[in-house]
Structures are given as structure tokens and as C-alpha cells.
Amino acid sequence: VWRLLKELKNHTQVTWFCLLGLREQEELKGIFFVLSLLIYSVTVMGNLGMITLIHADPEFHTPIPMYFFLGVLSFLDICYSSVVTPKLLVNFLVSDKSISFECCVVQLAFFVVHVTAESFLLASMAYDRFMAICQPLHYGSIMTRGTCLLLVAASYAFGGANSAIQTGNVFALPFCGPNQLTHYYCDVPPLLHLACANTATARVVLYVFSALVTLLPAAIILTSYCLVLVAIGRMRSLAGREKALSTCASHFLAIAIFYGTVVFTYVQPHGSTNNTNGQVVSVFYTIIIPMLNPFIYSLRNKEVKGALQRKLQVNIFPG
Fold first, then answer.
1. In which domain, by residue range, is 306 found?
2. Which of 143, 263, 302, 305 has the most Cβ atoms closer than 10 angstroms to its Cβ?
3. Burial, 5: exposed, middle or buried (Cβ in 10 Å; 0-12, 13-18, 19+)?
4. What is the pTM of this model?
């Protein structure tokens, strides 16, 4: 890894970048610090609480893929939020908003890994709902623990591949100055804006691979849920319909929020985080969405709410 960083650094004269994101609201940095710290704390505690609840409650000890995936989703939310938010919090407090070239490479690489992995994990969760509702007789034999582990491993494999491509795509270009990055973390579009070379090919690579890792999972999700809706429509039992819809509603809401912001940032041809609107959208999916996911799933899922109530009763009224 360090050898790769040295090779990338040899292509450039820039040794550090200055993160200028959210500078237009400089007078509000105290409020933003407190708000960001609160959101990050809730994100970490909420997702850790979800992971702990899934592993500690007896109801979830049987291998239920939906809750296994939910635990992995919480882990991913903690990871990619932690790649960005701590540096943002530090920058609210200090005047030196610099980040070294090496740290910038590492931040971008880890961020892309986890965001891409989450994109494919959401597709895996949609496939799980399709199997549970449309193929219930084969669900237990297909969605085994081995299958779940394979889907998670594949999500990380896609994340690692996309991270290697996107990181190499950016830092293979020379950076000779300026080094002022108009964003609050190292991301591909604002970095390409600083490159001292023709970035046309690099931008094509960005759009193509961003589209692949966004639209391919989205196609799987849309196909799965179209088939799910058809299956629900054919159910004769009203209670069965309500139960099927309730298990899918939280997942579909999380998907809509996540993909809406990612597509706005990376996939549209003129989308760039090199502007205030793009930064606001980035704040939403890097900081706010990881906080919302545990609440979306816990409030919309009867089993999770039941497990939470049991835990609270045991802790507050022991015995």
C-alpha cells in the first residue's frame, strides 16, 4: 500500500490539499460542529445498538438473512461515516484544514469501498425479499448462511474493485497546484477539477463505473420489487399483504434515499460536488443517511421493535 502511495505521489508536486468545503457558512461553524457531532454520535450508537440487538436477542439467533444483512448494513454505515465525519469535525475547530496527499488517497479509497459495498448490499437485501415473498418454498434452501456470506463478500469485492479503479483513475493524474479542494472530504469530482492534465478520459471512467455500481444494483432492486408487488397483488389474504408490504417498506425507503443522493452526485453528466448544492447532497448521504437507517428499519419492523422492547424491559425492569 505504501509503495503504491509513493508511486502515485511521484506523479505530482502537491503534498497536501486544503479542504474548503462548507466555507460559505463559516460564521455557523460552531453550530455545524455541534450538530455534526450529535449526528455522528447518534449514527455510531444507533448502528452499534442495531448490531448488538441482532446478535444478543434470542429471536435473531436463527439464521434469518434479513437481519444478517441489516447487521452488515449497520457496520457499513459506521465505516463510511467514520471515513469522512471525524475529519470534518476537526476542520470545524481548527484553522488548518489541510489533509496530506497520502491521507487523501486513503480516505477516497476507503470511502468508495464502503459506499459501493452498501449499494450492492442493498441489492442483496432486495433479492432476499424477492425470495422470501415470491419463492417461499425454496427460500430456506437458497438463502442459506453460505449464500448470505457470499453476497456480502461479493459486495465488498465490487467495492474493492471500484475503489481501486476510481482511486487509480484520479491519482494517476498529476497535481501541480492549486491544491484547494472545494469540498469537505477527498472525492473524485473535485479532485479531477485540480488535476494538471486533460481529465476527459478520467471523467468518462468516473461516470461509467459510477453508473455501473449504481444502476446495476438499482436494476436488481427494481426488478425484485416489481416481482414482489405482483406477488403481493395476487395474495388473497389482507393480513398477508400487509405483512409482506411492511417487511419491504423500510428497505425501499432506505434505498430511495440512498440512491437518490448518489445518482445526483455521481451519475448525472453535469453532477459535481464542486458546488454548494453538491456539498449539501454529500452531507446528506455521508452523514445523515447512516444515522437514519437504524431508525428507518427499527420503526418499520415489528420484530426489531419487539426485540428492542424486550431488551429495554430486561434492563429497566430486571427480573
1. 2-316
2. 143
3. middle
4. 0.84
318-to-11, 35, 184, 310, 312 alpha-carbon distances in Å: 63, 35, 46, 11, 9
Place of cell 406477488: 231
- Residue 290's alpha-carbon distances to 101, 195, 284, 297, in angstroms, are 27, 31, 9, 12
User: What CA–CA distance (Å, rounded) separates 23 from 38?
Assistant: 20
Q: How many domains, in total, are found in the chain?
A: 1
Q: What is the rounded distance in angstroms from the CA atom of residue 68 to the CA atom of residue 143?
A: 11
At 253 the pLDDT is 75
pLDDT score at 218: 87
Digit-coded pLDDT (tens) for 100-153? 988 999 999 999 999 999 999 999 998 998 998 888 888 888 998 899 999 999
Contact 107, 21 (CB under 8 A): no
Q: Which amino acid does the sequence have at 67?
A: Y
Check if the beta carbon of residue 267 is closer than 8 Å to that of residue 214. yes
Q: What is the CATH number of the domain that holds 279?
A: 1.20.1070.10
